[in-house]
């Protein structure tokens, strides 16, 4: 059967041009988007679908349209030549087709074609089909949704991988930290045990070590300032070049090259002077650390930790790397306690802040001391609570001591007990207990996770202690324990424990300048008395040595009569 159709070569050419434009647009825009997504590691399945559709436009649709365009143009060039518009032609169709018009023969042999008016039902049906049909815009909207989903999935994937990478880094850092704690504990224990002679020598000449430390720091800071000024000045001179600088400053520097090379040369010389200055500062800080060890303020492990840091900064400052580290160290050291705590919380791995039972790392200390992962987690919880309460406690104590003339707080920088020291204390307390050991009970007995020393002059000692304790009580602090050993054999001082308004227990010792000095010099004996498995003979000998050392401490007036506040 045949049918009559109208063909317009111009219309077909327009369709062909539209198809080509769509294909080229897909190739140009979506291919670049896919490349960027692939570089980010985003899944590109949605992009591939769009680009595949563009390929099919070129491989399947466009050839068919081109073929019809060629046929239309060939029909236009038939017998009558171009007709300038749609032309009716007969096309063979194997399926029967209902003609949309009626043919009426004319007397002259012609035929009149008459189209019937379209029914309302057909008009409505056509409109319904037009509404339900989806144009190319809808298809592209779907593809855009697919691409958006792919980008979202890729973003989630990147975030997940970044999180996994950070967890791997923090796990590695925790492993290194654990290794460092074990190594410094073993080395520190060896130093405390085998280098008693060195410690006593430093203790006897601690004033010399302090003087040398101060002298090195003063010279070092002078060189730091000089180096900074020279770095800027020589960089400017070098950038200007020798001739230009000589014309300005009035002296000959003609050998200095100009431009970037001269600036780098001048800056390098100044930074070398600055590096030498920071090296001297670090050496001075190391001598201070050694003096602290000699006086008994720190143990061998703390000597290894702080001493290795200072020596490392001293060596690396010579090549410029340690300069930045030393600046950061000084800046952090002088930050407010609340700022330092936030930095520590931020640097700590997230799992270390609220670790579930069983996730903490086992601690191994000297002389066979050991804590399981769960026991370490209990101690860490105490350390975290102490660090959060410390700033408010420190402020209250400083205000209370401010009422006493000449009162000071020596060792304030060590007010928070170190994790290793607390681990060792808990492990010693639990030594010999059969599992499961009651670590919570041992932690509840700790009173010095936060600890302070109030040093009051002898002449005003009794009155000063009463002023401080009454002020603390007025501020909402409640006494937990009180032990006054002035006038008794052995240790001379007052050891008290208090509970802050937020519930944190802390230790407060009262000393005169002499009793505090003797206490620090006897710290080595105290540390040895804390060791587990100490023989009875050795313990007796150490206690006798403690009595002998503290016999030199004069008893301040009224100290033996101080009974302290009422313990509720």
Word description of this protein:
This protein is of the alpha+beta class and 568 residues long. It folds into three domains: 1-97, no CATH class; 191-334, no CATH class; 356-568, Beta Polymerase, domain 2 (2-Layer Sandwich), CATH 3.30.460. It is built from 19 helices and ten strands. Helix 2 (45-76) runs antiparallel to helix 4 and helix 6 runs antiparallel to helix 8 (260-295). The longest helix has 59 residues, at 136-194. The protein is elongated and about 150 Å long. It starts with a strand and ends in an 18-residue tail after the last helix. The model is unreliable at 243-256 and 349-359 (pLDDT under 50).
In short:
The chain has 568 residues and is α+β, with helices and mostly antiparallel strands. The chain has helices at 9-39, 45-76, 120-132, 136-194, 196-204, 206-240, 242-249, 260-295, 300-317, 321-333, 337-347, 350-353, 373-401, 419-430, 439-444, 461-474, 513-521, 523-529, 536-550, and strands spanning 2-7, 87-92, 101-105, 111-115, 363-364, 370-371, 451-455, 478-484, 494-499, 505-511. The radius of gyration is 44 Å and the shape is elongated.
Name the structural class: alpha+beta
Number of distinct helices: 19
The CATH architecture of the largest domain can be named as 2-Layer Sandwich
Return the average pLDDT rounded to an integer: 77
CATH domain class of the largest domain: Alpha Beta
- Biggest sheet architecture: 4 strands, mixed
- What is the overall shape? elongated
- Amino-to-carboxy terminus distance: 113 Å
Can you tell me the residue ranges where pLDDT is under 50 for at least 5 consecutive residues? 243-256, 349-359
Task: Tell me the number of strands.
Answer: 10
Rg, nearest Å: 44 Å
Helix content: 55-70%
For the record, the count of structural domains works out to 3
